[in-house]
Amino acid sequence: MTFALFCSHSWLSLSRFCADNNFMTVPSPSPFSAEQLLELEKAKLRAKKVRRAANIASIDGGITAFFAFFAMLSFCMGIDAVLLGLVLAWVAFSSFRGAARLKKLDPAAPALLACNQGVLFAAITVYAIYNWCRAGSLAAMLGQVIGDPSLLAGLPELAVFTEQVQQIVQWVPPLLYGGLILGSFFAQGLTALYYFTRRSVLRAYLESTPGWVLDLQCRGLV
After folding, report:
1. Which of 12, 22, 96, 118 is the most exposed place for a label (fewest CB within 10 A)?
2. Domain boundaries, the chain
3. Whole-angstrom Cα distance, residue 171 to residue 179?
4. Are 92 and 36 in contact (CB under 8 A)?
């Protein structure tokens, strides 16, 4: 009990001494003036479109990396899947790199990201055309089987089934791979156009923002 009273008395004496000598903790002053804080706030608002583009590039890179991983896992389906996975992995890496450069306000970043979409479209197109041709070869082989009566003699049910499979092989690849090429054309084309339009947005931001603000943002301090 005596020890507790002593500690309480000591704490009160120390607090009174600090108050009398202006030793009480006070909030540290901001390193920026009111005008500078206002300029920083305006710069954040103006940079919203640039930050959004960087976030989209990061998300795009993550999605592409996901498909690259599963494409390389499907190596049993052929070397083409592995090659597509490698290209997708490179595109994903380039997307992450472009996003990082865009966050640092690099004027060349939008063009890099746009060209990256062109590479992705080219890879998907080559992959689709290759598999389309493979499916055509399969359809031709089935056509030879159906056209040879000696192979299916006495097996009318198998002949009907083979003919149905041939029709499927003839119609599915154009719809599947043609749709893949067309979908990629619009998806990658619109995304590339979006990144290209960010060049003017970034240029306008760099021209209208004070240098000291740009330096802080490039360093990630604000």
Report:
1. 22
2. 45-218
3. 12
4. no
HSE, CB side, 13 Å, CA atoms: give it for residue 201.
Answer: 20
Going 155 to 160 to 164 to 166, the CA torsion angle's sign is positive
pTM reported for the whole predicted model? 0.71
Q: Are the beta carbons of 64 and 95 closer than 8 angstroms?
A: yes
124's CB contacts (< 8 A; 6+ apart) are 84, 180, 181, 184, 188
**Rounded Cα–Cα distance for residues 32 and 222 (Å):** 12
Cα–Cα–Cα angle for 160, 165, 167, rounded to 5 degrees: 95
* CA–centroid distance for 132 within its chain: 28
Q: State pLDDT tens for residues 166-183.
A: 666 667 778 888 999 999
Per-residue pLDDT tens digits for 88-120: 999 999 999 999 999 988 999 999 999 999 999
**What is the 3 state secondary structure string of 116-184?**
HHHHHHHHHHHHHHHHHHHHHHHHHHHHHHHHCCCCCCCCHHHHHHHHHHHHHHHHHHHHHHHHHHHHH
Compute the distance between CA of residue 182 and CA of residue 189 in angstroms, rounded to an integer.
Answer: 10
